[in-house]
Design goal:
Elements lengths: L2 E2 L22 H9 L10 E7 L2 E9 L5 E6 L12 E2 L6 E7 L6 E7 L5 E4 L15 E2 L10 H10 L7 E5 L1 H4 L13 H15 L3 E4 L3 E2 L12 E5 L6 H13 L3 E6 L25 H4 E2 L4 E2 L6 H17 L4 E4 L2 H5 L21 H17 L4 E4 L21 E3 L1 H12 L2 H4 L3 H5 L1 H4 L5 E5 L11 H4 L4 H17 L3 E5 L24 H19 L13 E8 L4 E6 L8 E6 L5 E9 L6 E4 L17 E6 L4 E8 L3 E5 L1
Parallel strand pairs: 1-2, 10-11, 10-21, 11-14, 14-17, 17-18, 18-19, 19-20, 20-21
Antiparallel strand pairs: 2-3, 3-6, 4-7, 5-6, 7-8, 7-9, 12-13, 15-16, 22-23, 23-24, 24-29, 25-28, 26-29, 27-28
Helix pairs in contact: 1-7, 4-5, 7-9, 15-16
Amino acid sequence: MAQEKKYEDIHFVDSTRPVWNYSLFTGEDIDNFQNGTNYRLYELFGSREITVLGKTGYYFAVWAPNATWVSVTGNFNHWNTQSHPLYVRLDNSGIWEGFIPHMCKGEVYKYHIHGFRGRKMDKGDPYANFWERRPDTASITWDLGFHWNDGQWMKERAAHNSTKAPYSVYEVHLASWMRPDANDEERYNTYDFFRERLVNYVNEMGFTHVELMPVTEHPFDGSWGYQGTGYFAPTSRYGDPQGFMALVDAFHQAGIGVILDWVPSHFPYDAHGLFMFDGTHTYEYADMRKGFHPDWNSYIFNYKRGEVKSFLISSARFWLDKFHIDGLRVDAVSSMLKLNYSREEGEWEPNEHGGDGNLEAIAFIKDLNETIYRDFPDTQTIAEEATDWPGVSRPTYMDGLGFGMKWMMGWMHDTLDYFKLDPIERQYHQNKFTFSMMYYYDENFMLPLSHDEVVHGKSPMLYKMPGDDWQKFANLRALYGYMFTHPGGKLLFMGNEFGANTEWNYKSELPWFLLKYESHRGLKDCVRDLNFLLRNEPALYENQFNANGFEWIDLSHRPECVLVYRRKGKDPANDLLVIMNLTPVVRRDWKLYANGKESWKEVFNTDLAKYGGTGDVYNPEILTSLVDKKENRYEINIHLPPLGCIVLK
């Protein structure tokens, strides 16, 4: 719908020119933009359909403070760089704007910029909502009109996204989840396809949330989306913005939350993107000790600049506001916090206090989280942060960074190190298994087994496990049993759930053919049932981020590699006992001791035949006997399957 403006709102219009001098900005908008506090820039910048003096067309606005000339060029004017110049505001804001009457939705365009020292360049629109499909690089005039049908979800999602709710995330790279042709990286399925297939799959598997690796527009498939050019546009690889909206809508109608991977840490040097936008360092730091990322050959946002801060926080709000996104997983937070990240001595400059923290990035992150939780309190922000930086998921009023959760990278490394060991060696490394609970309460942790663990020679999850094929599957089922019964949120990368036998390859698709084999189907069923166990047992989530939810019961059997812990919810009647037997030895009539409950039943067992286990070590009846009446302490007699995890209630 074209936006109507009253005549008195129009600053100046000369209808004889191809571009009319027209503005949507107020003085307050400009002040907030420059101060880093305008977080609704997606309603001002970019291209948008409006009506001026009875003429419908598109208004354009772009920030290019060092430019001497900016024009709109595209198919509509045969890419003439001189015919449709924009007007620069006279308030030193660096904003160029104007209205082009009769311009239609679906026109491709770029900004032709004469920049610093006479450099000439053609840039895509940083605020565009739609881009050409790569390798083409122009922006497209569009609108974001859509009829949402997720009202019930939006009304109730605070409960779904709460830290006191089950939180199990399926991490997906859309292009390689499933392709029209598994061997053709140039072909993609559509948002409509994923609405039909992916939503049903995630729902069937019992995950509470899906996390999409970056769908913001990006030029290079090999970046997996982490080097973006369109911070306000879903990628056109799979369709138009409304197609992505329909996908989110379908997830919500299925009761599944949607988390987006969002990257405010760096961006690529592609000619049509943000780098050297007006011929000089507009979005990035000019000092390459701060402005260049050596790991990813990319450029780092200038968090000190108010206009850049407004741009980034507006991007975050945009996805939550216009696309109903339920959370943002913020990528590479460690690289933002540390001035010396991946830099040797002499390659970085300390901050004003002599430390290695990037004070501007820290302030930006705090403002980002404060803004999101103020405006969208029923969502979550999740930090990928791999250091011991304190208070990542603590509120800013407690001197934290303000995230809702943090990836527990230490748990991931220690757990994989432990499970990679030959079972006979595990007795000497029990601390790898137990250490996570020593620091667990420092943060609100999410346990990640992400895409990063199954690429670059690290091997797929299945082949990290020791032993023959049966033991590999048994170990992996036990690992997942441990993961889903450990406190915290869970994240599992696609393919991990059924035991992909190759590393993830973004050019191909998951090896779905493996599901014709019983062992892979069984693993998938095990993960599905773990998801529903998590959702159905309050002891696994009600106290998942506080000390009331976990208790070690038995750590004294190192030689046998048997470990026992208790998960506790608000009602003691819902308590669970988790027993891990991490050697391939069956242990019958194993005795353990726990207080409080006389009667137990087995509610989960990774060794069931339907999961590919032996199927003959289980506990249809569990014998208990009172051994200490004063302490209400019972001896529990159970059978432990080999390389297994069982859960008692």
